[in-house]
TrEMBL record:
PANTHER family for the chain: INACTIVE SHIKIMATE KINASE LIKE 2, CHLOROPLASTIC-RELATED, SHIKIMATE KINASE
GO biological-process terms attached to the record: response to stress
Name this polypeptide is given: CS domain-containing protein
Organism in which the protein naturally occurs: Phaseolus coccineus
InterPro entries per UniProt: CS_dom, HSP20-like_chaperone, P-loop_NTPase, Shikimate/glucono_kinase
C-alpha cells in the first residue's frame, strides 16, 4: 500500500485563525517543563501546542536563497534576477514573530518566493529591513534570542538536527510510550539526525538474557522484566549523546511511576497515540492525563501525540520531538546543566528539585520518586 507523503508545519495554538486540515498520521507535540524548586510538585506548566500537517516552506517559484547568522541578526538573500521586478514596490515582505512570507506583486495572483512557518526561532518583526542589491533581495531580521545560533531560516528536520547540539549539550534522550516499535523507530531517526548513539532497552535485555522479550515475559513475568529494564537504564544513565528507546506498556520500567529514577537522567519524550482529531482535543487529553496522575508517562518532559502510525513517518515524529525539546530548553536554558548535575549526583530520584550532595533519599521516604 503506497503511503502518501506527510507535509509538515507547526502552527502555534495562540494564533487566532487556525485552519486545520487533517493528514494521517497527524502529529501533535506538547511541551511541558518542570516546576521550579519553589513550586509544588503537583504543578505542570505548558508551552504552546504545535501540530504538524503541511509544508514548512512552500516556494512557488524557482527562487534560491542564501542564509547567514550574524549573532544578533540573521540575513536572507534571494535571487530575483529572472523576475520582472522594477522597484521595491513590486515586493511584499510580511513578517510576524515566527513566520515569513515574501511575494512578488503582479497583476493577477502574486508569486510566492518563500513562505515558512515557523522560522527557526522568534524575530523582532517590527525591526525587519529589506532592500534590493543588484539581482538579490536582502532581508535582515533581528533575533529575539541573540545567543541562539540559527542553522537555517526555517525550522525543519535538517535545521533542528543541526541546531540541537548547542541546546542539548550532550544530554541523552529517552523515548517512552505504549509501543516498543514506535519508540525504536523514532529513536533511530533521532540518533541518526543528531549523531547520537541509538540504544534499545529491548535489544539490550535480549542480548543479556539470550532470549526474546516475549520469552522473558512468559518465564519471569512483567514485574521481573520491569526490574531488569530498570537495571539496564541505571547502567546507561551516565551515557551522553544517546537516544534510548524503552519498552512499551506496563511490562516496561517507564510504565511504572516508581521506576523513573534513571529516566530523569535525560530528556524524556512521551510518544502517545491518540484518537484526537484536532490540537485542542489533543491538548485536553494530555491535561486530563496529567490531572488524573494515573499514567506514569506524564512524568515526561514533552509529549508528542500521534494519530495513527506508519514507520514511513518516523522522521516526521522525530522532527516533532526535536521541535518540542527545543521549545522546552529555550524556556529554561539551565535544564541541560541541571540534568548533568542530576547524573553526577547519582540519579537519586530527586528530579526536578535536585538536592545538595549528601542527600539521602531514604531520609524523606523517597516520596517524590515518580512524581513530576
Amino acid at each position: 500500500m503506497a503511503v502518501a507523503p506527510l507535509r509538515l508545519c507547526y502552527l502555534l495554538s495562540t494564533h487566532t485563525n487556525l485552519n486545520f486540515s487533517l493528514f494521517k498520521p497527524n502529529v501533535f507535540s506538547l511541551t511541558s517543563f518542570s516546576p521550579s524548586p519553589s513550586s509544588s510538585l503537583s504543578q505542570k506548566h505548558y508551552l504552546p501546542l504545535h501540530s504538524c500537517r503541511c509544508s514548512s516552506i512552500a516556494p512557488m517559484s524557482t527562487t534560491t536563497y542564501e542564509f547567514s547568522d550574524g549573532s544578533a541578526e540573521v540575513e536572507l538573500r534571494l535571487k530575483i534576477g529572472g523576475l520582472d521586478i522594477r522597484s521595491s514596490r513590486d515586493i511584499s515582505v510580511d513578517t510576524k514573530d515566527t513566520s515569513l512570507a515574501i511575494r512578488v506583486l503582479q497583476p493577477g495572483a502574486p508569486i510566492t518566493l518563500i513562505e515558512t512557518n515557523p522560522l527557526f526561532d522568534r524575530i523582532k518583526s517590527s525591526e525587519t529591513i529589506w532592500y534590493i542589491d543588484d539581482d538579490e533581495l536582502v532581508v535582515n531580521f533581528k533575533k529575539q534570542d541573540p545567543d541562539l545560533k540559527w542553522p537555517d531560516i526555517m525550522e525543519s528536520w535538517e535545521s533542528l538536527a543541526a541546531g540541537s547540539s548547542q541546546l542539548l549539550q550532550g544530554t541523552s534522550i529517552y523515548l517512552v510510550g505504549d509501543s516498543t516499535e514506535i519508540n525504536q523507530k523514532v529513536a533511530l531517526e533521532l540518533a541518526t539526525g543528531l549523531g547520537y548513539t541509538p540504544l534499545s532497552t529491548k535489544e539490550l535485555l535480549e542480548t543479556y538474557t539470550k532470549q526474546t522479550l516475549d520469552s522473558c515475559l512468559l518465564a519471569e513475568g512483567s514485574d521481573s522484566v520491569a526490574e531488569a529494564e530498570s537495571a539496564v537504564l541505571e547502567s546507561i544513565s551516565s551515557h551522553a549523546r544517546a537516544v534510548v528507546a524503552t519498552l512499551g506498556g506496563q511490562h516496561g520500567a517507564s510504565g511504572r511511576a516508581n521506576k523513573w529514577q534513571h529516566l530523569y537522567a535525560g530528556f524524556t519524550v512521551w510518544l502517545s497515540q491518540t484518537d484526537a482529531l484536532d490540537e485542542d482535543s489533543a491538548r485536553q487529553e494530555t491535561h486530563k492525563s496529567v490531572k488524573d496522575g494515573t499514567i506514569s508517562y506524564t512524568n515526561a518532559d514533552v509529549v508528542v501525540k500521534l494519530q495513527g502510525w506508519d514507520p514511513a513517518y518516523a522522521k516526521s515524529v522525530a522532527q516533532a520531538c526535536l521541535s518540542a525539546l527545543k521549545q522546552l530548553i529555550l524556556s529554561d536554558k539551565k535544564l541541560p546543566g541541571k540534568k548533568s548535575l542530576y547524573v553526577r549526583l547519582g540519579c537519586r530520584g530527586d528530579w526536578p528539585n535536585v538536592k545538595p550532595p549528601g542527600w539521602d533519599p531514604s531520609s524523606e521516604g523517597n516520596t517524590s520518586l515518580g512524581t513530576h
